[in-house]
Each structure stands twice: as C-alpha cells, then as structure tokens.
C-alpha cells in the first residue's frame, strides 16, 4: 500500500545511545515532516523539509538532527538519547503547498 | 504566532448522542483548517479540511465542520456518534506556505455502547 513508511515501529534505548529513525514516502511528495506526540501535548513539529536539499527547524528541534537523503527519504537522528525524548514519532509528507499531510504509522521510542 | 485551542480534553458520550468538539485558532491571515482523527494505536487520518468556499464542510464517516471566520472557530460535529468513533481528534491550522501544521492538543472521545 503506497504511503509513508516508518522504521522501526518500536525501539528501546538507553540514555546516551544514538539512533536514526527512518521515513520514506513513495508518493513523489516534495515536503516532509517529523513530529513527536506526547500525551496531552498534541503533535509538535521537530523538523521539516520543504523540498529536497532543504531542512528547517520546527517547534522542538533541540536534541535532534535530520537528513533529507533524497526526495523519498527523510531521517531523524537522536545523537545522545535522553529520557525526555521518550515519545511517539510521526513522519508526514505533502505534495506541495498547503495540502493535507499524509502520516506514517509512527515509531514508539522509549529511552530508559 | 499561530496557535490552536481545543476546548475539551476528554468527552464521553453514549451511542447516538450528538457530538460537537470545539476548535479555535489564532492567526490574522488566510488559513487552511483541518480535523484529523487518530484511532487507538494508529496514525493520524484526515477527517476533513477547509481551504475556501462553503464554510460548512463535510468529511468522512458523517463528520462535518463549520468555519466561522468572525469567531476564529472550526468546530467538528456529528449528529449521531457510534462506538467506532472512539478516538482522539486533532484540529490543525496552516497559515503559511510551507505546509507546516499547528496542532491543537487533541480531544479524546469515548463512546459508550
């Protein structure tokens, strides 16, 4: 089924470990996004990439880095994981402009 | 800065009851408005959207929303809820050109059978 694919679906890390969350879309969308979802906080934008080759900070970028590897793939890296980064991470994409976002199934990340 | 407020954190209804979830936003310019639904353990799915035109928009599964510009509101409604509507509902606004969404904190809806 076409759409946004995130890997892994679940991960447990120890404090200080590093990890890269992968996201790929096969809809030829230009823009891609990384959000984190925490109880009672809704979704908050971490980073986004308006087009291939560009990335920008969102609302909560501290502790994260991103790479827009090509048009399909947008990865999120935690260099030194902290318990405060325990969350569910969602990747999303849109073709252009203000179209509705298509979301992946999420990555549930726990940091001990 | 844009912001979105959802008035209710948790709403509990019986089947067949009517639903209205409040959403207010703050942004001075032209906005695009969205309601997303997240069923337990799943990703967000688009329920409906408003870009322009008729302020009463109809979405999937019998949901509708009304954009009232003067009140900066975009409330979600459904005349008769079902147990399968149990989910979390998010209002979101986009007032820029980058496609970035600002989400409300969500409203959990629990429907009793």
Walk me through this protein's architecture:
- The complex is a heterodimer of chains A (112) and B (113).
- Chain A is an all-beta fold.
- Chain A is 0% helix and 52% strand.
- With 113 residues, chain B is an all-beta fold.
- In chain B, strand 7 and strand 8 form a beta hairpin.
- Chain B is globular, with a radius of gyration of 13 Å.
- The N and C termini of chain B lie far apart (41 Å).
- The chains are: A mainly beta (112), B mainly beta (113).
- Chain A binds chain B through residues 31, 33, 35, 40-45, 48, 50, 56, 58, 90, 92, 94, 96-101, 103-106, and chain B through 9, 32, 34, 42-46, 49, 51, 90, 94, 97-101, 103-106.
Q: How many individual β-strands of chain A?
A: 11
Query: What is Rg of chain B?
Result: 13 Å
- What is the percent of helical residues of chain A? under 10%
Percent in strands of chain B? over 45%
- Gross morphology of chain B: globular
- Quote the distance from N terminus to C terminus of chain B: 41 Å
User: Could you state the order of secondary-structure elements of chain A as H and E?
Assistant: EEEEEEEEEEE
Mean pLDDT of chain B: 92
- Overall mean pLDDT score of chain A? 93
Helical stretch count of chain A? 0
Total helical segments of chain B: 0
Q: Which consecutive residue ranges of chain A, at least 5 long each, have pLDDT under 50? A: none
The fraction of residues assigned to DSSP E strands of chain A is over 45%
User: What's the multimeric state?
Assistant: heterodimer
Class by alpha and beta content of chain A: mainly beta
Largest sheet of chain B: 6 strands, mixed
Range of helix content of chain B: under 10%
SS-derived structural category of chain B:
mainly beta
Radius of gyration of chain A: 13 Å
